[in-house]
Amino acid sequence: LLLHRNVMPKTLEGQITMEKTPSYFVTNEAPRRIHSMAKDTKLIVVVRNPVTRAISDYTQTLSKKPEIPTFEVLAFKNRTLGLIDASWSAIRIGIYALHLENWLQYFPLSQILFVSGERLITDPAGEMAKVQDFLGLKRIVTEKHFYFNKTKGFPCLKKPEDSSAPRCLGKSKGRTHPKIDPDVIHRLRKFYKPFNVMFYQMTGQDFQWE
Fold first, then answer.
1. Which Pfam family, giving just one, matches this sequence (predicted)?
2. Per-residue pLDDT band at 174 (split at 50, 70, 90)
3. Which of 27, 39, 115, 163 is the most buried (most CB within 10 A)?
4. Which domains does the chain carry?
């Protein structure tokens, strides 16, 4: 706890300290450790269509290791039989229901906000309104703070009263995805469907990935 606190920013009364580590959601020990440290912690999880997420994950890895096998090769244990390799992290991370089950052993659903990655692109102000409400903050970030960057394919953040350049996502975001065999996409959608349905039931939210 002391080590963790030392790397966190100093927080004044009335401020909220936030930390972003995507791997927490899929790390088995994380819920227990966070609960023992601060059981009132509010958790925000950004999720997107697990098929798109897996391809995006692969694209990120490919940019660093161009020699890796194709997505189609890595996604299957046995492609002839259509057996998906759920042990491959790019696939496993998207089984959200499995990971959420672990978190719900320690945290009530009321302490977790699920943000739609798709709506964060199409309606960033709407999703940010939910985040601000969830954290008990005044709705300061609104529509006027966003504009869509067609080159990146993502919204950028701007300060309307400020002349400084807008904040856009870095070069590691918005990469062009490789073309994936449509049959592989179909099989992955089929693989994820029951897990997605379970996730919708657990969260009470339909993310409409089907």
1. Sulfotransfer_1
2. low
3. 115
4. 42-203 (3.40.50.300)
